[in-house]
Amino acid sequence: MVNPEDRTSALLRALQEGGEFASEQLFDALYDELHRLAQRVRQQRAGETMNTTALVHEAYIKLVSAEGLDPENRLHFFRTAARVMRQILVDAARRKLAGKRGGDLFPVTFDDALHPGPVPAAKLLSIDRAMDRLAAVDPRAAQVVECRFFAGLTVEETASALAIAPRTVKRDWRVARALLTAELAAAEG
């Protein structure tokens, strides 16, 4: 039996080399996992702007058609997918709010227990701006947020995707949540 990691890596290489059927095979190999990640995103916080299937398909199309995409392995592919899902959700939120004014009073706590529902489009845009500022100060913490918040990865999956220890993910997640919460509160206040 072929290891999924080895198969995915081989398909990613074939895709980069222009393999005729690599894109279809890669989609088949990764669809269930991408769908699971998109479902987590929608069930958690960032999914009010589009449905799961649309998010998966749009993310996949962006990933395989991107110039210069050369994922080292399966985990790198999913880390990149987290960033792409963030961009897609933010773009969808912008389209949804085009022409509208005002905001909503919807607190974002970055805590699943306190915040189980999807984030409204306006709040998602505020989070995106705060993420850009976080990335300027602490790029790795911003990557952790992308993996955890936008792609719905667990601590262990995030650690593997970023090649860091789970303890580091937990520390960066705590720091990022505090910084983002303060940034969002300041923007609203």
Describe how the helices and strands are arranged:
Blueprint: H1 4-16, H2 22-44, H3 52-65, H4 74-97, H5 121-137, H6 139-150, H7 155-162, H8 166-188
Helix pairs in contact: 1-2, 2-3, 3-4, 4-5, 4-6, 4-7, 5-6, 5-8, 6-7, 6-8, 7-8
Structure, briefly:
The chain has 189 residues and is mainly alpha-helical. The chain has helices at residues 4-16, 22-44, 52-65, 74-97, 121-137, 139-150, 155-162, 166-188.
Description:
With 189 residues, the chain is mainly α. It has one domain (4-188). It is built from eight helices and no strands. It has helices at residues 4-16, 22-44, 52-65, 74-97, 121-137, 139-150, 155-162, 166-188. The chain is globular. The chain starts with a helix and ends with a helix. Residues 101-109 have low confidence and may be disordered.
What coarse outline follows from CA principal-axis ratios?
A: globular
Low-confidence stretches: 101-109
- Can you count the helices? 8
The radius of gyration is 17 Å
By helix and strand content, what is the structural category? mainly alpha
Q: From N to C, what is the helix and strand string?
A: HHHHHHHH
- Relative strand content: under 5%
Give a quick account of the main beta sheet: strands, pairing sense, barrel closure.
Answer: none
